[in-house]
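Per-record layout

source: Sporanaerobium hydrogeniformans
name: Excinuclease ABC subunit C
length: 609
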Amino acid sequence: MFDIAEELKKLPDKPGVYLMKNDKEHIIYVGKAINLKNRVRQYFQDSKNHSIKVVKMVSHIASFEYIVTRSEMEALILECNLIKKYRPKYNILLKDDKQYPYIKINVQEGFPRMLVVRNRKKDGAKYFGPYTDAQAMWELVDIIKSTWPLRTCSRSLPRDIGKERPCLNGHIGKCLSPCNSQIDEEAYGKMVQEIISFLSGKYGEVIKRLKKEMEVASEALNFERAATLRNQISAIQKLEQKQNVTMNNMLDQDVIAFAKSPEDTLIQVYFVRQGKLVGREHFYLEDTQDEKIETIFRDFVVQFYANATFVPKEVIIERIPEELEVLEEYLSNKKGSKVQLVTPKKGVKHGLLELASKNAELTLGQFGEQIKKDEQRTKGALLEIQKALGLKEIPYRIEAYDISNTQGIESVGGMVVFEGGKPKKSDYRKFKIKSVVGPNDYGSMEEVLDRRIARLISEEKENSFSRMPNTIFMDGGKGQVSSAQKILDKYGLDIPVCGMVKDEKHRTRGLLYKGEEVLLPIGTEGFKLITRIQDEVHRFSIEYHKTLRSKAQVQSVLDTIKGVGKERKKLLMKHFKSIENLKKASVEEIKEAGIPNQVAESIYRYFHK
């Protein structure tokens, strides 16, 4: 029996993290303390200063545990990791964990390429972004591709120069063919520097050069080329006009402001990169009526930058958060250089902060109610499912599984994840069946669940695979549910397992739970959510199966043709996309994919015997 009074006496006067639990041993709150003894005791002392939220939380505390750390900084990081892992009911939760894309130019290569990536690494490459507006970023990429003939292939240059013929892009002028010595590293490097200047916001230099080229093309009566250049200039000028907020410095900054309703808070973040406003994002935090705005800002900063691939040198913030010095140390450690949190009272920075604040108010007024309705709808769906199944807790994280094969060939499993009633695609997983031969859905399902649960238990680092599902949905009936239950029993886990059953028209009918069919009324939010989950896991699994079947077909056909190895198979499929397209190609068209003349003739003869 846990005696709270006795445990309070044992608390150390050291920094650390404390975890409050209810009578079901579920973690309902995670907190950090400079002095664990003083902080935890405060919760159990009669105080008029306790908020309604704290009073309610304390009434549900049945036990607690704590972890001692060496410093307040360690405690802050641990607190953040534990909140992400357990998602406690009484903590402020940031639900958005997007990773924004970057444009990467690897200047370490002999002939650099341009790539779109999600993670920024310390690899000596140039990164531009992050871009919160993906559409605007792809517009930028298209402008670069149409203006500069940069290579897109994955050949290792200069090592592979002269080994193969230029690809189709080289033939049609979209690449300068460095693979065939058509341009040297110095000239190519000048072109790359132009692109870097362009991505840094120096559009004027590029426009000036393109205008000169357009005049030359017009004088030479090459009106088609002149029109193309005119369109490129127009696209760049439009892009320049979109960058309507410019600061005098060239700093990277994030600007964080807020708007508050009686119950909730909306946080608005502006992203300023090299003095230009490149995007914004808002975050809706529910049930913050009892929280001070300084506390909200503190929790937001910790969770927002926990997974951030980029931390700017300066964060302009509307309200000075709690534990300012610790937060600055935390951000500086993540960046590897000094980061400042500032609240300007005048000047350009203050003007930008005011702009973010006004937009936060407008966003809250315009979208706040809709956001709340969406949240209530998804939460309502989960509550309906919880009630229908008689679950102890809301099924916040649902993992759904399906098996796909064709007469036992290329059997695969798919796992999709729904958190808070919404798909979390970053946590989706594919499984290629290894131990089961033939069309055995039950055996395949056992293998998939066994591999997933084994990873769940063995993962030491916090990641998506180490998060425990609240409920498991299987696409199928009793057999699939029994297969899953067998694996859960093997590992001693108590996770509710349901089968998603369909009617005679192959449409969602309801759930199978504990041997009984549970039918939710058609049209309810709970029924709609189950349908979405079933359709999504089926789509995800069958797409993976089709991909493997297509690859198997390519392997079996092309492996029999003399002169076609691993690399040439890649070239052919990249160029023609399918075997059917390759069958229709002439020898000349096959050669355009970078295939030597003799091999191209062999391929053509194979399909036209």
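summary: Residues 347-389 form the longest helix (43 residues). The longest strand covers residues 409-419.
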